[in-house]
Write a structure and sequence with these properties.
- This protein is an alpha+beta fold and about 300 residues long.
- The protein folds into two domains: about 5-90, Orthogonal Bundle (434 Repressor (Amino-terminal Domain)), CATH 1.10.260.40; about 110-295, 2-Layer Sandwich (Beta-Lactamase).
- It has helices at about 5-20, 40-50, 55-60, 70-80, 85-90, 110-115, 140-145, 155-165, 165-170, 175-190, 195-210, 210-215, 265-275, and strands at about 125, 135, 225-235, 235-245, 255-260, 285, 295.
- The strands form two sheets. The chain has a five-stranded antiparallel β-sheet. Strands 6-7 form a two-stranded antiparallel sheet.
- This is Helix-turn-helix domain-containing protein.
- It comes from Phytoactinopolyspora alkaliphila.
- GO terms for molecular function: DNA binding.
Length: about 300
């Protein structure tokens, strides 16, 4: 059995199993016979998905029909598949996972916030698909205090890099760093081109930052890579970190960024001193993207 045939058979078997598990009452359908409460017929799925019964039957049978992404999305929505199941169906047909619908999350999930807080003196924050900063720890707030006071609609990593003067003062290599961030943003946000929030962000940056405008037309694209980052903090001086980014498997649309103090430097000691300074009482200020305080 070839690889393509095996994937088609797995796709057909997966859809057939899920179809048979669906609760008929959830689709406003009566029981079959006297007691069969689960399982939709193929024609019931096909009708709701907007495809022919024959085509859907062939899909479950694993025939070589080359289903389009649009049709598979319709079938997945009709069967009310979870995000993971939807992605699995697309992957079996040779398509990339479906793209996030939300540019900004309502709030950072509680378990992700606990992960941020657990980083101690390593600055850490979480960003949405559109690079809105959704949560952060005390160390990040100590490194960049404006994150807690900037207006919710301005709390976007790319926007702050290009428009907040304090960020420029903190980064001795701001010109290279800003362009690097922009190239990464562009590589990641192609799927968001149709979103109003993305268009508004780019329009605002083009209007407010000449540096952004010049860099934007260069169409530079780069994948994220862990790297050394250096900051100049007004209170504790030079800080050197290793920049890492993680994607939680259960929140794949969110990235967790951690700045780990660089070895063979005194950055860790300086961060501890910064966190022990007056006003740093060990309490993290956490806000959602609407500006609402989530916890003390």
């Amino acid at each position: 059995m070839g690889e393509d045939e095996e994937r088609r058979r797995e796709l057909g078997g997966f859809l057939r199993t899920r179809r048979q598990e669906l609760v008929r009452a959830g689709f406003d359908l009566p029981p079959v016979g006297r007691s069969r409460l689960t399982g939709l017929r193929r024609e019931e799925i096909a009708y709701r998905a907007g495809v022919s019964v024959t085509w859907y039957t062939w899909l479950e049978q694993g025939r070589k029909i080359n289903p389009s992404r649009q049709v598979l999305n319709s079938v997945a929505r009709t069967m009310r598949l979870s995000a993971a199941e939807h992605d699995y169906v697309l992957s079996l047909a040779g398509y990339a996972p479906h793209q996030p619908h939300e540019v900004t999350p309502a709030a950072v999930p509680a378990h992700i916030q606990r992960l941020l807080d657990a980083q101690g003196h390593s600055p850490a924050f979480a960003v949405s698909p559109g690079w809105a900063i959704a949560g952060w720890n005390l160390a990040y707030q100590a490194l960049y205090p404006n994150v807690a006071t900037v207006a919710a609609e301005d709390r976007n990593l790319l926007l702050l890099i290009f428009t907040d003067p304090s960020v420029r003062r903190m980064l001795p290599d701001w010109d290279a760093t800003s362009r690097h961030f922009l190239a990464e943003y562009r590589a990641e946000t192609g799927p968001l081109l149709g979103h109003a929030a993305h268009a508004a962000l780019i329009a605002r940056l083009l209007d407010e930052s000449p540096e952004f405008a010049r860099a934007w037309v260069q169409h530079r694209v780069e994948r994220f890579s862990s790297r050394e980052r250096r900051f100049h903090h007004a209170d504790v001086g030079e800080l050197a970190f290793e920049h890492h980014r993680l994607t939680p498997s259960d929140v794949p649309d969110m990235h967790v960024v951690v700045y780990v103090p660089l070895r063979d430097t005194d950055t860790a000691a300086r961060m501890r001193r910064l966190l022990a300074a007056p006003g740093s009482d060990g309490i993290t200020q956490v806000f959602d993207v609407e500006g609402c305080r989530l916890r003390p």
